[in-house]
Design a protein that fits this description.
Blueprint lengths: L8 H31 L2
């Protein structure tokens, strides 16, 4: 039986890409929010 190893890059690559995409999407929304909030003043 194989164990799940968090150090193995091939087993965690999918999770890392998913976290990266979520971070980038949230970052884009944050920039848009900050630009919108700055323009209203």
């Amino acid at each position: 039986m194989e164990t799940y190893n968090l150090v193995n890059i091939f087993e965690t690559k999918g999770l890392e890409y998913l976290l990266l995409m979520c971070f980038l999407v949230l970052f884009v929304f944050l920039i848009g929010y900050l630009k919108g909030a700055g323009g209203k003043e």
